[in-house]
Amino acid sequence: MNLGDSFHSAVLSIVRNKLRSSLTMLGVVIGVGSVITMIGIGEGTKQKSLENIQVMGSNMITIMPDWRRNGQSGGSANATLKTEDVDTIKAQVPTVELISGAVNGGVTAKLGNRSAQTRVQGCEPQMAIIRNATKMLQGQWFNSADNDMMERKAVLGWQVYDNLFAGDNAIGTTIKVKGQNYEVVGVVAYKGGTGMMNPDDQIYVPLKTAQKRLFGKDTLDFISVQAMDTDLMPTTQGQIEDALYAKRKTASGDALFRVFNQGEQLEQIQQQSKLLSYLLAGIASVSLLVGGIGIMNIMLVSVTERTKEIGLRKAIGAKAEGILTQFLLESIVMCVLGGALGVLFGWVAIYVVSPLLQVPPIVNIQAVIVAFTFSLMVGVFFGLYPAIRASRLQPIEALRYE
């Protein structure tokens, strides 16, 4: 019996037992599909996270107070950021292109009988460039004079605008923020961010207006900096830390501020997403192994059921290699078919699940190849022992088997 005959016989055996073969392949289908789906969802989550970071602005560095050290000696008075810190950075860090202090807090914004729970960010007008919010749907940003005069002017994020105006013209309209009247001068175009710092769910007002009129404080919640170039991010971060350390430290020498590099955040997200993808793929691979064990079990049952057939074939001259090839091909064919259906299942699952999780659907071709190859290896590995067992049956004992 040549290889073609062995393959034909293997396929006929699978077709004769359609239900059993289908249930046997199910484990492989679920395993391959799960691996592809998990990795695809992981890749989509990574891309969405990176987009959320990038939508906040390029070449950005953020400085925040480190309140964890507030109880340490010298910490209570200095664990704040002030306008003078912005001036210090401007004077001592030449690689800073733009800088703005900022304050923020939760508020209720109202227009007539409509209201929106959102956040106000008080900032200087250059924050629009730092945070990549220069593309306007309507109007324009407030200017430096508005900040100096503490004008009650507001720029709305897209989500706030949609909640309050539902597509109508907002420019020149007065809204209430914490009971105060603010003139809407601009609406930022949709950016697609998420989370507490979602740029679409913000109202931007002049920094001094927010400090004095809304929140009643002279400190800053954070400082945003744009470096001159991406390659200068580490240098800029180090110079900022050196410039602030002289004034913002505890008696024991601990810094009372934290500096976050946008590039470092992107790198951390990529590393965490990669680990998550590996973890999910490992968990999904367990079902593929379980499917392989199911194939071995069914193949052993098949050898037992066909013992007399094997004995008869050997009695009329069939070789052990031919028997081994036929049973091994049965296992491989089931795994290949299961793997192909699993790829289709995983592909469809990604496009079904991704919209529910609000992440982009990404089919990782490398994951498809690896999962399909693994299913083929499962067929060889778990089908080899039953095939060897079938090939070693003695003709006389096999013919007498009941």
Number of strands: 12
Provide the number of structural domains. 2
Describe the largest sheet: 6 strands, mixed, barrel
Helical proportion, percent range: 55-70%
Q: H/E series, N to C? A: HHEHEHEEHEHEHEEEHEEHEHHHHH
What's the rounded overall pLDDT mean?
A: 82
How far apart the termini lie comes to 26 Å
Counting helices, strands and paired strands, the structural category is alpha+beta
Give the overall form. elongated
Taking strands numbered 1, 2, ... along the chain, how are they ordered across the largest sheet?
3-4-9-6-8-7
Low-confidence sequence ranges:
none
In angstroms, what is the radius of gyration? 33 Å
Percent in strands: 15-25%
Q: List the total number of helices.
A: 14
Could you characterize the architecture of this molecule?
This protein has 402 residues and is of the alpha+beta class. It folds into 2 domains: 3-52 and 268-399, no CATH class; 80-247, no CATH class. It has 14 helices and 12 strands. It has helices at 3-16, 18-54, 75-78, 83-92, 127-130, 144-148, 158-165, 207-215, 233-245, 262-305, 307-315, 320-357, 365-391, 395-399, and strands spanning 60-65, 81-82, 96-111, 114-123, 136-139, 153-156, 174-177, 180-188, 202-206, 219-220, 222-227, 257-261. The strands form 2 sheets. It has a 6-stranded mixed β-barrel with strand order 3-4-9-6-8-7. A two-stranded antiparallel ribbon has the order 2-10. β7 and β8 (180-188) form a beta hairpin. It is elongated. It starts with a helix and ends with a helix. The model has no long low-confidence stretch (mean pLDDT 82).
